[in-house]
Design a protein that fits this description.
Blueprint: E1 2-11, E2 15-16, E3 19-20, H1 21-31, E4 37-41, E5 44-46, E6 52-54, E7 64-71, H2 73-85, E8 91-98
Antiparallel strand pairs: 1-7, 1-8, 2-3, 4-7, 5-6
Length: 105
């Protein structure tokens, strides 16, 4: 199947609707019935505005997070439309790819 990989980059402490933004994105994937979504955390990152984001033993609110979606073009349209409606400004990358499922046989 031909589709897209959308990777959104943020940090754990960023919130939307009183929820961690990365967790909100995963919930949105479920709500929109997207083909797949994964949240991955990093030890350190630099944002486009310059600050370094890092996780510490005491506080993980500044922990860098990447949320990756595997979607069809129609799902991409629905996802980006919803993010626009929510007035969210999140940096992301978009890669065209082929994906599918392995067979048990």
């Amino acid at each position: 199947m031909t589709g897209l990989q959308l990777c959104f980059y943020t940090y754990y402490g960023r919130t939307h609707q009183s929820m961690s933004l990365p967790e909100w994105l995963i919930q949105l994937a479920k709500e929109l019935q997207l083909s797949g979504a994964t949240m991955m955390t990093g030890q350190m990152g630099v944002s486009h505005q310059g600050p370094i984001h890092t996780k510490t033993w005491i506080d993980d609110s500044d922990e860098p997070v990447q949320v990756t979606f595997f979607v069809t073009p129609e799902q991409e349209r629905d996802l980006l439309k919803r993010l626009d409606q929510e007035q969210l400004n999140i940096f992301y990358t978009r890669t065209q790819l082929e994906f599918g499922y392995t067979s048990i046989n």
